[in-house]
What we know:
Helix content: 10-25%
Strand order of the largest sheet: 1-2-3-8-7-6
CATH architecture of the largest domain: Beta Barrel
Strand content: 35-45%
Number of domains: 2
Mean pLDDT: 90
Radius of gyration: 22 Å
Distance between the termini: 84 Å
CATH class of the largest domain: Mainly Beta
Order of helices and strands: HEEEEEEEEEEEEEEHH
Structural class: alpha+beta
Number of helices: 3
Low-confidence stretches: 282-289
Oligomer: single chain
CATH topology of the largest domain: Thrombin, subunit H
Largest sheet: 6 strands, antiparallel, barrel
Amino acid sequence: xxxxxxxxxxxxxxxxxxxxxxxxxxxxxxxxxxxxEKPEEYQNFVLSCSHVVEDAITYKKEFHxxxxxxxxxxxxxxxxxxxxxxxxxxKVNSSNTHxxxxxxxxxxxxxxILKLLSPKKIDYVAHIxxxxxxxxxxxxxxxMSAGCSLGHHPICNDGRVTYLDEIIENKTYWxxxxxxxxxxxxxxxxxxxxxxxxxxxxxxxxxQLGFGIDIITWMxxxxxxxxxxxxxxxxxxxxxxxxxxxYKKSMARREKKAKQALMVSVRGEEETENSFGKExxxxxxxxxx
Length: 289
């Protein structure tokens, strides 16, 4: 079991506040390591929910000079990440706001990865439970939720895992009774015993009573760790858990994958257009006979 100092360092200190122009939520620092090409500079990444940063993601049609046609282009605005500085173990002394780029996101998983523009080392980093230990999580496991509830400085609440098979929009979520509320989205669920992160706080329960809605704070849902690893793999972000990989290699794979996806999409549109053209010819031929 963690002592008081370790609870602060492993569970409270890695939690950050994430803000866009219109909304906000939480996140956790999960990576702060030297850049292999510039060891004096650090690469820092924050794990959050895609819905926390969704209003910073827009799309527009733009002419592609190679494909010679309009294509849908993604516009990712920078977001703000506040990292808190503590004194006397528990007291927030100040917060430092950093600009961050949205590196990857997935609306179906409700996960996003943000890259801080600051090259400074971040001292306190959350550690996601190893993939091969996920099955050790059972009902009644002691956990703690940590996030910026209602835009507040990070708040921690204890509880237990209460359900492991909730299906929401065809995705698996875990439930715990460690209280969470609006603003906790993007924050984390930690194992009380080890301080390892086992989920991303994503949803809360609510029931409508008359004209009002009651929030059930002790029925919170989190993105489980197996889906976090699935997201890392799908998004070519293995460097976040595999020391043999690097951010630069990941970005090269992502760029290649994006180009391939664009070409497939364009070919699909062209085939659809050709198909419609053939159908129109067949209709004209039928009518003239």
